[in-house]
Design a protein that fits this description.
The structure holds two protein chains of two kinds. Helices cover about 35% and strands about 25% of the residues of chain A. Chain A has helices spanning about 45-50, 80-85, 100-110, 115-130, 135, 150-165, 180-195, 205-210, 230-235, 240-245, and strands at about 5-15, 15-30, 30-35, 60-70, 70, 85-90, 170, 200, 215-220, 225-230. Chain A has a six-stranded mixed beta sheet with strand order 6-7-8-3-9-10, sandwiched between helices. A four-stranded antiparallel beta sheet of chain A has the order 2-1-4-5, with helices on one face. Chain A is globular. Classes of the chains: A alpha/beta, B mainly alpha.
Amino acid sequence: MSAKIEVERLNLWYGAFHALIDVGLSVREKAITSLIGPSGCGKSTLLRCLNRMNDLIDDVRIEGSVRLDGQDIYAGTSALTALRKKVGMVFQRPNPFPLSVYENIAFGPKVHHLAKADEMDHIVEDSLKAVHLWDELKDRLDESALRLSLEQKQRLCIARLVAVKSEVLLMDEPCSALDPMATLKIEELMRHLKDDYTIVIVTHNMQQAARVSEETGFMLLGELIEFGRTPDIFTRPQDKRTEDYITGRFG
Amino acid sequence: MARFRKVKEFVIEKLIFASGIASIIFVALIFIFLLREGVSVFKTTSIGDFLGGRFWYPISDPPKLGILPLILGSLLVTAGAIVLAVPLGIGAAFYIADVAPVKIRHLLKSCVEVLAAIPSVVLGFLGITLLVPFLKHTLGLPTGLTALAGSIMLAFMALPTIISISEDAINAVPREYKEGALALGATHWQTLTRVIIHGAMPGIIAASMLGIGRVIGETMAVMMVTGNAAVIPTSLLQPVRTLTATIAAEMGEAAKGSPHYFALFAVGLVLFLISFLINLTADLFLNRGKKR
């Protein structure tokens, strides 16, 4: 199993606030890696470093390196749009565009010029099939995506990434807006997708991390306290703080 | 003490109720008055001759009271203004809302407010002294007092409305849409033109409609620069006369109770209906935007 993403000595400041402190980890290819920790510990910030979404925030300063397939994504030469195509993101609140289901999927391939017009129907179909939405939505492709259920919306957002052939899926608490049943279904989908995709998920929900991920990192106050195989983190934590957190003593 | 407070509450409540109801009463009274005076013109002229008549000679004998040239004049000047102001206004709104650095954004917003504060007669004055001679010379026209001059002046007046309401609509587009598009690797421009514009569309349409509403009711600047010839216009480069300018120019000299006098009220009625329809459409779009 090779490393898809390698983070080394990553430091990030929002203005004077030191939000990530010397973070280092490596994300295995075609596996699910989860980041857990209390609110404000920097797990979403770390996730957003991996596709450079922090670039949108003013007054942010980043040091250290993040290598994707061996290439430093913060090096001056790498193209932001190509990076974000390769490293897609699923947000906490499902955010389909105010367009039809079809156009939501077609958006990515169009902006990256991936498909000719006659191939688009196939891409839309394949992408929806990959997230198990095709049977539900094949007759509703022209409907506004805003009319879907929350779970369908979140699946659609994942399908958008499938359509641009993302290699890495970053998921920022993808189930926190969903009910328990929908959450289970999305988790099932994630297990399905990891055969083809490298997935990094940030979650509040420790059980979720334990259920879906191969590897887990525990973060606290901007530091990555412990990182390792999920069963090890949850059954034999090396650090006292990890143990306190997973046994529910704080957080 | 408690009794006094109760009386005070009662009085305040009734006062607020009266202020609220007053605007409804005023609108109703204005409409009734306009209707009563305006409808009288149809005793001497049929509705068809009034709306479809091609000649406006109110003081000939018998008077010819066809307002078709005036309606077309208003529509032409308005259409010209919209063609100029809508693209410019939407572009400016996108720049202010989503592209400009913070300092420039504040500067531009103040400029837009100042533009809105210029009295229309002052704009008309600038139009007469600068724009009209400029048009005459550069386009080689017999006169610069044309529909085009009116359109340009009115575009200036519609711009602040269009810019500020469109900008609000663009800012109201959820941040998640923008993040979602950027996270898919779309460029800023693609995000703007393919996603944000869809979210902001109802508001932008409403902004344009309100801009049109402002333009079609405008009088002073138009009267000063359009030449006021009541003929059916065939091009933007000839003098026209609008509905508003007609009322403003002739009301003072129309004999009270004459067909001319009543016709001017009917012109007002037509204007009232046009603005009402435009505002209604704008409202529909604004509400649709909110519901989504």
